[in-house]
Design brief:
The protein is built from twelve helices and 14 strands. The chain has 312 residues and is α/β, with parallel strands linked by helices. Bound molecules: ligand FO1.
Length: 312
């Protein structure tokens, strides 16, 4: 039986997560989700990456937006705007129910892990997804226009400010989720989903002890490139790389994860890099437009992991 620990952010990672969930039984995979994007907005506790995974794995994701719920209406937001309220962060009517439920459970003293379990089970998700930590970690984006909270940079400013660096406030004091640490003791591989390495995966790797535990496990660690042919499939990864002065290439993503990796999954568009990186590579289709693409990439990743495990 496989025991995969999948590290993931939101939209890009959720696509592969869906493929993995289709192929693997609940006891074969744990999804560890970035919570550096979390924030309190209009009094609600919002956990965007957990939300995206939750909607994706329950079949409720909004296919046009990539985040939020399907069949959404926006009456709340329109009414809020008419009252002069903040509408830059779009909370749909149905989506609002999730944030209200989470906020109430947290206020009653439940942990983020327990709240996530309550919500995912209510939506019929059999696989387990957990926040990276029950402690607050907040991604701060340093830009030429000053430091800003992640959602302010990402949604309100539409990733326009020039990035100069990142900070994960609270990470040093945060404890990695014990569910993740326990899973690692019996895990067969770690899969880093094709999420933004700087703001979706690095917050997880910044948690004290998590990187060391992954290394100490000695199991294959495979990352899927979120950069294809020099472009980000989704979001600002390529733009951030350019602004940070590194070439926006899949090779740089592999270099970013450095010696943590034992394997790297490249798209056909980057086949020229195959066997030219300091880690084992495999080449497959990583662009996930359809459900079949998600399952097919999951199959390729699992085959690669099996191959690396056998190579020992
Ligand atoms: N992303 C946007 O680009 N615009 C939005 O208005 C927006 C609202 C939103 C509401 C709830 C939620 O769970 C996610 C939402 N997202 C929105 C997505 C999200 O902020 C980002 O995709 C992630 O933080 C990046 O991983």
């Amino acid at each position: 039986m496989r025991r995969i620990l999948a590290l993931t952010g939101g939209v890009g990672g959720a696509k592969l997560a869906l493929g993995l969930a289709h192929r693997l039984a609940p006891e074969e995979v744990l999804f560890a989700v970035n919570t550096g994007d979390d924030f309190t907005h209009l009094g609600f506790e919002i956990c965007p990456d957990l939300d995206t995974l939750t909607y994706t794995l329950s079949g409720l994701s909004n296919p046009e937006l990539g985040w939020g719920r399907v069949d959404e209406t926006w009456n709340f937001l329109d009414a809020l705007g008419a009252l002069g309220g903040d509408t830059w962060f779009r909370l749909g009517d149905r989506d609002l129910a999730l944030h209200a439920r989470r906020t109430a459970l947290l206020a009653a003293g439940a942990s983020r892990t327990a709240v996530t379990e309550t919500i995912t089970q209510a939506l019929g998700i059999r696989h387990r997804l957990v926040p990276m930590s029950d402690d607050p970690v907040r991604t701060i984006v340093h830009t030429a226009d000053g430091a800003m909270a992640f959602q302010h940079y990402f949604v309100r400013e539409r990733c326009a400010p020039v990035v100069t660096g990142f900070e994960f406030a609270g990470a040093e004091q945060a404890r990695p989720n014990p569910v993740i640490m326990a899973w690692l003791t019996t895990a067969s591989a770690v899969v880093i989903c094709p999420s933004n390495p700087f703001v979706s995966v690095d917050p997880l790797l910044a948690l004290p002890g998590l990187k060391a535990a992954i290394r100490a496990s000695g199991i294959p660690v495979v990352a899927v490139s979120p950069i294809v042919g020099g472009q980000a499939l989704k979001g600002p990864t390529a733009k951030m790389m350019q602004e940070l002065g590194v070439p926006s290439s899949a090779a740089e993503v592999a270099a970013h994860y450095d010696d943590l990796l034992t394997g790297f999954v490249l798209d056909h568009a980057d086949a020229a890099l195959h066997e030219r990186l300091p880690v084992a590579t495999t080449v497959t289709g990583t662009v996930m437009l359809s459900f079949a693409d998600r399952v097919s990439l999951a199959d390729s990743v699992l085959d690669f992991v099996d191959h690396l495990s056998a190579a020992g």
